[in-house]
Design goal:
single chain; alpha/beta; TIM Barrel
Length: 276
């Protein structure tokens, strides 16, 4: 597989609702999103995704179909177990997700790692299990403020990447996305990253991908997430190695989702700045 030129690589954009929104609220979000995509002339080549809580997944999938967004918006889950079944109270399996039509699963989010003890070793089981089943996987990596201060940020994220992808082969790459989310930048009290901060980390990430997968590693999308807002998203989407945005609270309401998406597409030159 030959590397694609940057202007040929799809742009990905989405959000994780975390522990927010009831099923009805998520369904309303998707219903309200559909006309806004058409109004703002968002190209159909832009790959959108929404990751609601588990309880919202069935209604979100139904609402997406009703809104005519089935081919435009992936619905994702916030976590999954590596086993297909078993005595794992409180967990959700890959077959459970695929049986209801989930497209994507988020793995390795900083909150799963930091608050719930998710390890690199667990992710080395979860990532291939989800990919083999045909799910898209958004694997998150990121360094803490302490790791950044000690100058080991790039080493930290490449370690996370290499362990999680240890048993992943090239045949699964078309379903893999990487989300770089510096832990020191996400959340309500996060510090917005500078473009140079992002490049210092994503360049080693890209190198690690090509080291493992060869030229095909150049085509694995790398998304940036961390205090992304309408006024700074353009700084990130114009970076050579960034293929999308993984937005937090700024996109939890459909109006915010629309504003950040539109600002990003204008910065990339995908739509005109006077779109309304």
């Amino acid at each position: 597989m030959q590397p694609l030129a940057r202007d040929k690589r799809p742009f990905h954009f989405g959000t994780n609702f975390k522990m927010n929104q009831t099923p009805a609220e998520t369904a309303r979000f998707l219903a309200d999103l559909a006309p806004r995509l058409n109004q703002n002339r968002v190209p159909e080549t832009v790959r959108l995704f929404v990751i609601p809580p588990f309880t919202s997944l069935p209604m979100a999938i139904a609402a997406r179909e009703t809104a005519g967004l089935t081919s435009r918006v992936w619905i994702g889950a916030q976590n999954v177990h590596w086993a297909t079944e078993g005595a794992y109270t409180g967990e959700i399996s890959v077959p459970m997700l695929t049986s209801i039509g989930v497209d994507l699963v988020l793995l390795g989010h900083a909150e799963r790692r930091g608050l719930f003890g998710e390890t690199d070793e667990a992710l080395a089981k979860k990532v291939p299990a989800a990919l083999v089943a045909g799910l898209q996987v958004l694997l998150c990596v990121g360094e803490t403020a302490e790791e950044k201060a000690f100058g080991v940020g790039p080493e930290t994220v490449t370690r996370q990447l290499k362990i999680a992808l240890h048993d992943v082969g090239n045949e699964a790459l078309s379903r893999l996305l990487i989300g770089y989310e510096p832990v020191w930048s996400i959340g309500a009290g996060g510090t917005p990253a500078r473009p140079q901060d992002v490049m210092e980390t994503v360049v080693p990430l890209r190198h690690a991908l090509t080291e493992k997968f060869g030229a095909a590693g150049q085509n694995v999308p790398i998304l940036y997430g961390g205090s992304v807002a309408p006024d700074n998203c353009g700084d990130f989407v114009t970076l050579e190695e960034i293929d999308g945005l993984f937005v937090g609270r700024a996109a939890w309401q459909v109006e915010g989702f629309e504003r950040v998406l539109q600002a990003a597409l204008v910065a990339r030159g995908d739509i005109r700045g006077d779109a309304d």
